[in-house]
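ok trying again, last paste got cut off:
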Amino acid sequence: MAHPPFVGRQKWEELTSAVLASSARAGIGLALSLVVQVAALVGVILFGDAPFALHAGLFVVWIPAVIIARRQTRDFKQKDFWKAALRAYPAWTKWLSDGFFAYALINFAYFFIATAATSSRHSAPPDAATLGGFTGHWMAFYAAAISVLYSSTRIPSVDPCRQCARGHQVGSLATFCEQCGSPAQGSPPLPPAVC
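nice, full thing came through this time. structure:
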């Protein structure tokens, strides 16, 4: 895998290893959330209160994801944040993230309807419906973290150095040079992700 010119090869390999480790943690969190979700759907509460550790686990994977996303998007306009952060993600991570976010919305509606008639018991241990309500969101955010983290490891290979007609360097999403206004040359603004 190519490394960006501003980072040495050894440092890039260390960063890539750390990012892939965070992606693996997000994958484990996603898998465990899915197991707890399926169990909750059939009315089984797995591991007592322990599944709520998955809530804390989101911070373990989202802190690196946010730091990396901010670093990868610092040269882009704020309105292009997500487009820039995910510019190198393969199609399978898009389906993963979009699918789990859609499921989280459906699951939240189901949770809201299923628990609307019951009385609130704040001091009681969580029931299967409560766990099911949380796990949909956990899965969505773990999947999004996987997309952000995995995309960041692929950016150097899909992000070519682009210039305008006058030789100024332009960003990968730019269509015109911000220094002189000339059209950007080179590859299209969003190169297709390779799976």
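cool. The longest helix spans residues 9-41. Strands lie at 162-163, 169-170.
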